[in-house]
């Protein structure tokens, strides 16, 4: 068992790392725990809307942030959190795949996980043609034919990235209009090797040992066609994985953690920030701001508890 931390931050994406910076600057004994460094930043090829930086890759921004955190003396543990329990003395016990840690407060900033199509053979073909990260796995499909499913910014970005790598890209979306940024839509529409299939959906994954084809249904015409592809990038959004908080903090109908403007959850001493919360806007800069607020709120919570004890 380790010594008591002032705060344990679960998640090492931009939200968690920003929270760690602010906690450390308040001289809080801080630990960051996450199975991966960078979170969804690692899936972003180019970030052009982060204040003060004209253009940066997700990987580069994650490295800059993690260096800042480590330079402030914060330890980052690459471990999977298995459970969170609140003790009788109001402290928290965080169990990971490798160890147990105790803390006076917890900040939950573990982001989102990619949604699945829930089709037969999807899980079987992950790594064998199916991927949830174009920026991670795109280079494996050089000069090949791929499909991207989705209509938001992540799907548009994936299609644009793959248009530079693959020979041909099918972009499949079940609605008649994309819902991403207009600038991204224009980029995709101007690519000669992207075939846009709106008002369409993938209804079947076909292959023996790996992905070979997808069956696409044209929703307006109610017709289907099989399309030969070497790869399929699933970019239909993300969902919070908040099972750890069952019985601890209140969540909404989407399993997002409910917080107030200070990042407080329904459980005293537990704070949350970023994409995992009920906040409407899921952006890097929004998550960073919320991470800072959650850390400052955790600090304030500890100061108020100490003041109560002294009286």
Please outline what is shown here.
The chain has 311 residues and is α/β, with parallel strands linked by helices. The chain folds into 2 domains: 179 residues, FAD/NAD(P)-binding domain (3-Layer(bba) Sandwich); 121 residues, FAD/NAD(P)-binding domain (3-Layer(bba) Sandwich), CATH 3.50.50.60.
Provide keyphrases for this structure:
five-stranded parallel sheet; FAD/NAD(P)-binding domain; seven-stranded mixed sheet; alpha/beta; single chain; 6 helices; 311 residues
Explain the overall architecture.
- With 311 residues, the chain is of the alpha/beta class.
- The chain folds into two domains: 5-112 and 240-310, FAD/NAD(P)-binding domain, CATH 3.50.50; 114-234, FAD/NAD(P)-binding domain, CATH 3.50.50.
- Helix content is 24%, strand content 27%.
- It is built from six helices and 17 strands.
- Strands 1, 2, 3, 4, 5, 6 and 17 form a seven-stranded mixed sheet that branches. The chain has a five-stranded parallel sheet with strand order 8-15-9-10-11, covered by helices on one side.
- Strand 4 and strand 5 form a beta hairpin.
- Helix 1 runs parallel beside helix 2 (58-71), helix 1 (14-25) runs parallel beside helix 6 and helix 4 runs parallel beside helix 5.
- It is elongated and about 70 Å long.
- The two termini are 31 Å apart.
- 41% of the residues are buried.
- The mean pLDDT is 93.
């Amino acid at each position: 068992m380790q010594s008591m931390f002032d705060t344990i931050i679960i998640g090492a994406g931009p939200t968690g790392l920003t929270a760690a910076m602010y906690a450390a600057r308040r001289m809080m004994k801080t630990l960051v725990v996450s199975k991966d460094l960078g979170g969804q930043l690692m899936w972003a090829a180019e970030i052009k809307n982060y204040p003060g930086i004209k253009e940066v890759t997700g990987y580069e921004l994650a490295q800059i942030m993690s260096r800042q955190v480590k330079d402030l003396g914060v330890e980052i543990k690459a471990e999977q959190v298995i459970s969170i329990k609140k003790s009788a003395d109001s402290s928290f016990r965080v169990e990971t795949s490798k160890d147990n840690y105790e803390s006076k407060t917890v900040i939950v900033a573990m982001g989102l996980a990619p949604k699945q199509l829930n089709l037969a053979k999807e899980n079987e073909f992950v790594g064998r043609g199916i991927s949830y990260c174009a920026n991670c796995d795109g280079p494996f499909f050089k000069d090949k034919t791929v499909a991207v499913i989705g209509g938001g910014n992540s799907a548009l970005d994936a299609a644009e990235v793959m248009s530079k790598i693959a020979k041909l890209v099918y972009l499949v979306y079940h609605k008649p209009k994309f819902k991403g940024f207009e600038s991204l839509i224009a980029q995709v529409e101007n690519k000669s090797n992207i075939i846009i299939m709106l008002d369409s959906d993938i209804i079947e994954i076909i292959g023996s040992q790996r992905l070979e084809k997808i069956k696409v249904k044209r929703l307006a015409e109610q017709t289907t066609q099989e399309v030969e592809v070497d790869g399929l990038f699933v970019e239909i959004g993300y969902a919070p994985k908040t099972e750890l908080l069952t019985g601890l903090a209140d969540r909404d109908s989407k399993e997002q953690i409910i917080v107030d403007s200070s990042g407080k959850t329904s459980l005293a001493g537990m704070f949350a920030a970023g994409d995992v919360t009920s906040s409407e806007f899921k952006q890097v800069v929004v998550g960073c701001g919320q991470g800072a607020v959650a850390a400052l709120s955790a600090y304030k919570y500890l100061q108020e508890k100490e003041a109560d004890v002294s009286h």
